[in-house]
Amino acid sequence: MTDSGVKTEVWPLIHTERAALANDLAELTEERWETPSLCAGLTVREVLAHLTAGASLTPPRWMAGVIRCRWDFDKQVAMRLAEQLGDSGSETLERFGRVVTSTTKPPLPKMAMLGEAIVHAEDIRRPLGIHRDYPITVLTALAGYYRGSDMVVTAKGRVDGLRLQATDGPFAAGSGPLVSGTTLALIMAMTGRAAYLAELDGDGIPILRQRVPPRD
Questions:
Q1: Which of 72, 95, 109, 211 is the most buried (most CB within 10 A)?
Q2: Distance (Å, whole) CA 131 – CA 35
Q3: Cβ–Cβ < 8 Å for 112, 152
Q4: Beta partners for 191?
Q5: 1 touches 105 (CB < 8 A)
Q6: Maximum Cα–Cα distance across the chain
Q7: Using alpha carbons only, what angle is made at residue 107 by residues 151 and 17, rounded to the nearest 5 degrees?
Q8: What is the pLDDT of residue 6?
């Protein structure tokens, strides 16, 4: 399950997570589509549109957008999100459904795309009160990826000098003050989601809390 592996090793996992999310959102009312997500300033509907955009961008199209936005990456994200939002929550979901099995991606590792599928799914699910039991093997691999990478989102730098220990699987990494909890909570904290800090324990929590400030 590494980016250097065979194409089919990671993509089926991404497709599974996208399909599970689409299924979870199938009966969502228009009112609930406007629920604030864990991404500051974005509704759950907007986060889903962002996932659709990521699964629709080839490297050349991504670069064209970067140039168009004058290297303002946040501006490009907002532009591409708007392209996929549609006129209603049901249309946003329909557009996402079209890319569930897509293997199109911007110039990112496949593991980063898996991270997008899981982390942003939690950005959507948690505010809506939806729970998913992710395969622990998938979460363990993803935690290892984020522990060693600052691509797309600062993760490695956020947990530098801390010892991470999963309580529900084999993931363990780093040295220093301990931060322990479920693998999912560790992933979400590594990627800057303060909502998961309460699910973690250890003497490294005060340090991590400083690095993961609450979102407005």
A1: 95
A2: 16
A3: yes
A4: none
A5: no
A6: 49
A7: 75
A8: 39
The dihedral region occupied by 86, where left means phi > 0, alpha psi between -120 and 50, and beta the remainder, is left
Judged by DSSP in three states, 98 sits in helix
Q: What pLDDT score was predicted for residue 71?
A: 58
Length reported for the chain: 216
Q: Phi and psi at residue 163, in whole multiples of 5°?
A: -100, 120
pLDDT at 64: 67
* pTM reported for the whole predicted model: 0.89
Structure tokens, 25: 């959102």
Q: Are 115 and 150 in contact (CB under 8 A)?
A: no
Cβ-contact 30, 89 below 8 angstroms: yes
172-173/178-181 β-pairing:
unpaired
Q: What are the beta bridge partners of residue 166? A: 181
For range 99-126, the mean pLDDT: 95
Judge whether residue 10 has pLDDT over 70.
yes
